[in-house]
Structures are given as C-alpha cells and as structure tokens.
C-alpha cells in the first residue's frame, strides 16, 4: 500500500461525498494502491451510513466506527493504528484543508522527508476570536515547550510509516498528535497553504473543547506551569515577608499598630487565590497521570471493515 488517508468524522454528512470525490481524484493521480480510512467518531447524523455506502462502491474506502464520541485526536490515533500505507496522510473532513495539496505533500515526502506538514498561510471563514486564540495559543505553547512544535500548523500532514510506528508506541492517553510528531524528530519540513472555510456544517471545537485541547497540549509537552506555580509561591512569600517587616517596624518603632479589616481580608483572599491556582495546576498534571495509570483502552470500536496494523511488526529503516 502506497498511501493511507485518515479522515476523522463527527457529524460531517454534508462533506463526505465531496471529500471522497476530491480525495480520490487526487490520490489516483499519484497511485492506484491507496486507502481512505474514515474514522466515525460516533456521529449523530447520517455520516456513518454515507461512509458505508462508499465502502460498498469503492474498495479503496475503509471505515472504523467508535462506540461513542472519543474526540478528534483519538479518532486520528485509531486511524493510525489501522493504516497500512507507506505514507499516511491526516486530514479533516470539512474540506478546510484542500485534498489537492496532498500531491505537493507527497512529492516533498518523496524527496526524503519523514514528515511534511501543511502550514496555514491564512484561514478563511473562521471568527476573529478563533484565529486570535489559535495564534496566541501556538505562540504560548512554543514558548513553554522544549520540543520545537511548529506554529500555525494543524494535523494536516503526510508521515512516513516509521513515524506512524513510533506514534503507535507512545502510550499516553491524552493525545496531542502534532506535538508527538515533533517530539519524534527525523527530517521534517512543510508546505504552505491557504486554509478554506468549512464546506458544510459547523465547527466541533467550541471554546470549552479548545481549552481542554490547549491544556492537554501544555501538560503533554511542558512543565512550565508547575514552575510558574512555584515562582508564584515564592513571590507571595516574599511579599508576606516584607509586610511582616513593615508591620513590626510600624509597631515597635513608630508605635502605631497597623489596624483594619481591609488589609486582613485582602491578604487572605490573595493568598487563597494563589493557593487555589497552584493546586489547580498540580491537579491538571495529576488528572493526566491518573488517566494514564487507569490504562483503559484508548477507544472502543463498534464496527469496522479494516484490519489492525498496530501489533504487526514493521521493519523500520
Ligand atoms: N472531529 C471528530 N471528533 C470530534 C470533533 C471533531 O472526529 O469530537 C473531526 C471533525 O469531523 C473534523 C475534524 O475533527 O474532520 C476537525 O474538526 P472541526 O472542523 O470541527 O475543527 P476546526 O477545524 O473548527 O478546528
Ligand atoms: Mg474544521
């Protein structure tokens, strides 16, 4: 198998047919030996039956269907466990990422790069808030991590099966795939593209999910928040120490005891706040560990027409 394409699907009934057409047309320009794996993340609409119809018409089409909604990153991870290709493409179903770009990604890959990711030059049809928060987030994450995670890059990319094999062997349960790929290393490069608006339907990433995703990314790749927490503690203690000296001096030297409810309540609230924040930060890391230690399966598949590749040994160059 030359190329596998992984497409996570959550309520994308309006996009499946056009995606299928554009992707098949693109891939058949490269090779005849390809597969397109749709990973249905328990869509509530008609997506699954549309995909199944495609599998009957076209033997290139494979599908995996989850027993419940596990999230996009896990859907992609499942696709990776089942992909057979020498090169594996990850792409969103909503046609924000143009399937035609795969040709360019593939020719770069053929030059010998193990990963070629698609970098967004611009993004259409998204709110200024989404663009702004994405911009801030990518740059903040880049500052916080030691791994070099490229900015303005989504999961749209092509990867060699060597990379895929390493990804399969990474046991963490909260996935941040683009970070993991950077962590793996090898020769990586990018091509730039223009991100289109969603063809049909609406985004599945409301603010709450985006925050969750951001926290997963940060806790996966950085210990900075923990260090910030200890710095915060140090600063508060320093401040308290100065306040003690001030209180002692004004009592013993100037003989006027500091009086008042205001200062007292303010300092209690302040210290309380700092404590809560630091406990919250520690909590995020503990939750992450807890999730890993429970060691539940990453996903549950209700039905599929494809064979797992994960535990087959692949000769790695
Ligand atoms: N997706 C998924 N499970 C989810 C949410 C999203 O499989 O719980 C898929 C979705 O169908 C799409 C991709 O992940 O193919 C990206 O989602 P979306 O376009 O909503 O995100 P955005 O582009 O707005 O960040
Ligand atoms: Mg999208």
Automatic annotation (TrEMBL):
GO terms for cellular component: plasma membrane. The chain crosses the membrane at residues 232-254, 260-287. It comes from the Bacteria. It is found in: Cell membrane. Its main location: membrane. InterPro entries: Glyco_trans_2-like, Glycosyltransferase_2, Nucleotide-diphossugar_trans. Residues 4-166 form the Glycosyltransferase 2-like domain. It is a multi-pass membrane protein. GO terms for molecular function: glycosyltransferase activity. Keywords: Cell membrane, Glycosyltransferase, Membrane, Transferase, Transmembrane, Transmembrane helix. The keyword Transmembrane applies. Belongs to the glycosyltransferase 2 family. GtrB subfamily. This is Glycosyltransferase family 2 protein. It comes from Candidatus Onthomorpha intestinigallinarum.
């Amino acid at each position: 198998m030359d190329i596998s394409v992984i497409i996570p699907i959550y309520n994308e009934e309006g996009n499946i047919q056009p995606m299928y057409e554009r992707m098949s047309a693109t891939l058949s320009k490269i090779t005849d030996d390809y597969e397109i794996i749709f990973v249905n993340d328990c869509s509530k609409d008609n997506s699954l039956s549309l995909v199944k119809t495609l599998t009957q018409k076209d033997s290139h089409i494979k599908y995996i269907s989850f027993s419940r909604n596990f999230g996009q990153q896990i859907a992609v991870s499942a696709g990776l466990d089942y992909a057979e290709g020498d090169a594996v493409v990850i792409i969103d179903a909503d046609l924000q990422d143009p399937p035609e770009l795969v040709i360019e990604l593939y020719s770069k890959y053929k030059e010998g790069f193990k990963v070629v990711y698609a970098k967004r030059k611009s993004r259409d049809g998204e709110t200024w808030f989404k663009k702004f928060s994405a911009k801030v987030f990518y740059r903040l994450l880049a500052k916080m991590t030691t791994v070099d995670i490229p900015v303005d890059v989504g999961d749209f990319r092509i990867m060699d099966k060597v990379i895929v094999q390493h990804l399969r062997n990474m046991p963490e349960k909260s996935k941040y795939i683009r970070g993991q790929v950077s962590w793996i290393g090898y020769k990586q490069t990018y091509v730039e593209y223009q991100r289109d608006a969603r063809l049909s339907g609406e985004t599945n990433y409301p603010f709450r999910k985006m925050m969750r995703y951001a926290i997963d990314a940060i806790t996966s790749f950085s210990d900075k928040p923990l260090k910030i927490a200890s710095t915060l503690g140090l600063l508060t203690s320093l401040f308290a120490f100065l306040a003690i000296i001030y209180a002692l001096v004004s009592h013993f030297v100037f003989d006027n005891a500091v009086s008042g409810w205001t200062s007292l309540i303010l300092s209690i609230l302040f210290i309380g706040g700092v404590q809560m924040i630091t406990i919250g930060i520690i909590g995020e890391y503990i939750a992450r560990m807890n999730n890993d230690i429970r060691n539940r399966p990453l996903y549950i598949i209700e039905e599929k027409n494809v064979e797992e590749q994960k535990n087959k040994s692949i000769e790695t160059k």
